[in-house]
Design a protein that fits this description.
Bound molecules: flavin mononucleotide
CATH topology: Rossmann fold
Number of helices: 6
Structural class: alpha/beta
CATH superfamily: Flavodoxin domain
Radius of gyration: 25 Å
Order of helices and strands: HEHEHEHEHEEH
Distance between the termini: 55 Å
Strand content: 5-15%
Number of strands: 6
Helix content: 40-55%
Number of domains: 1
Shape: globular
Largest sheet: 6 strands, parallel
CATH class: Alpha Beta
CATH architecture: 3-Layer(aba) Sandwich
Length: 216
Amino acid sequence: MKYLITLSFLIVLSSALFAACSKSKSNTSAIKDQLAETNDSLINKKVLIVYLSRTNNTKAVAQIIHKKVGGDMVALELVNPYPQDYKKIVDQVSNENSTGFLPPLKTKIDKISQYDTIFLGFPTWGMQLPPPMKSFLKQYDLSGKTIIPFNTNAGYGIGNTFQTVKETAPKSTVLEGFSTKGGIERDGVMFVMEGNKEREVAVQVETWLRKLKMIP
Ligand SMILES: Cc1cc2nc3c(=O)[nH]c(=O)nc-3n(C[C@H](O)[C@H](O)[C@H](O)COP(=O)(O)O)c2cc1C
C-alpha cells in the first residue's frame, strides 16, 4: 500500500514537472518568435529620421519616434530659408507648388545608402507635401528602402502628402504613415506638442510603431 501511494505521488509529481517545462518552453519560443520578428525590422536595420518643421510640432513627433526606435535624426534646412511672415510663406509655397520649384537644401545627408529605414516627417502645406520634402525625395536615391511618413497639420489632414511620397519614391516600400493635429499658425497657434497633447501623441506613436513592428 505504502509502495502504491509513493508511486502515485511520483507519477503526479513528474506530470506536474513535465507540464511546467512544456509551458515555459512554449513561452520561451513565443518570446523568441516575437524578438525575431522585431529584430528583423529594428535591430538589423539602420534608421534615419528626416523631418521638416517650422514651428516644431513635427520636430516633437520626430523626437518621440527617435526615443522609441533610435537611429540618426536630421532636420531639413534650406539654402534660402522661408520668410518668417505667415502670409509670405503661404504665397511662396503656393507659387513653388504651382511651378514645381524645388528649393535647394542646405542639409546634406552623409552616405544615405547606409540606412534601410527612413522616417520622413513634414507638416501639410497648402494640402500638399512641402517643397523641401519634394527636394529631398528628388535628390536622394531611396530605392529599395523602407519609408515611413509622419505628419502634423492644422486639422485639415494630410492632403495628398503621403500619396506624393509614394509617387516620388516608386522604388521604395512606403509603410502606413502617422498624422496628428499640430499648430494652427494662421490663427497664431504655434507649438502644441506639450503636456497632455504630447503624452497622447507619444501613446499613439507607440501603438503605430508596434503595428509596423518597429518596436516589440
Ligand atoms: C505655409 C503653410 C501652409 C499650411 N497649409 C496647411 C494646410 O493646407 N492644411 C493644414 O491642415 N495645415 C496647414 N498648415 C499648418 C501646419 O501644417 C501645422 O501648423 C503644422 O503643425 C506645422 O508643423 P511644424 O510645427 O512642424 O512646422 C500650414 C502651415 C504653413 C506654414
